[in-house]
Amino acid sequence: xxxxxxxxxxxxxxxxxxxxxxxxxxxxxxxxxxxxxxxxxxxxxxxxxxxxxxxxxxxxxxxxxxxxxxxxxxxxxxxxxxxxxxxxxxxxxxxxxxxxxxxxxxxxxxxxxxxxxxxxxxxxxxxxxxxxxxxxxxxxxxxxxxxxxxxxxxxxxxxxxxxxxxxxxxxxxxxxxxxxxxxxxxxxxxxxxxxxxxxxxxxxxxxxxxxxxxxxxxxxxxxxxxxxxxxxxxxxxxxx
Length: 240
Hints:
- This protein has 240 residues and is an alpha/beta fold.
- The strands form three sheets. Strands 5-4-1-6-10-7-11 form a seven-stranded mixed sheet, sandwiched between helices. A two-stranded antiparallel sheet has the order 2-3.
- The longest helix has 13 residues, at 125-137.
- The chain is built from seven helices and eleven strands.
- Helix content is 27%, strand content 23%.
- A hairpin with a 6-residue loop joins β8 (157-159) and β9 (166-168).
- Residues 1-12 have low confidence and may be disordered.
- It has a single domain (16-236), classed as Spore Coat Polysaccharide Biosynthesis Protein SpsA, Chain A.
- InterPro entries: CMP-NeuNAc_synthase, Cytidylyl_trans, Nucleotide-diphossugar_trans.
């Protein structure tokens, strides 16, 4: 894949390291059959992630990890490398960490790894590149994308299934005024990046010291259910 033109400053900032993006795209899915190929504004869902990654100022390698022939063909038509994923890593119970570890081992990549799930189609190229900027300019070992939520854990409870007793999520919490609560964010699944060496041997981002790259809710749709796909269509078409 040809590298986009870089300013010297941006290339120096990333430390002249190779940046490999992994796009996981197994063929099976439960709630939305053939989800990665579902249509969104005239394109397969996965194409939105391809487009964002291919336009990155930093990414110099793009690999699809898939067990699906149609996904593989779509990638190869665009000159994207394909990593054949074994069937034991293509089931409903397969974790992202397992997919990442397999990809690192199979590609023998060194440098920085970016993990881009096709289920986040509204993530932009700037979201990817700014996450990488944050990674190389800060003290964190990895960066994950997040978005703000209105609900604070200080006000949350678990409801006992036996006697409906409320159990606070935050032990020994006090009564907080909304304006006194800290801002709360959640993972949105759009961008994960870290040095490859720190992800070995298990591919697990969540044992690293992480920084959060904040994205707006409008770009943070994570498509899991049919309603998520419809919401993305509304956003793209300017209806929501």
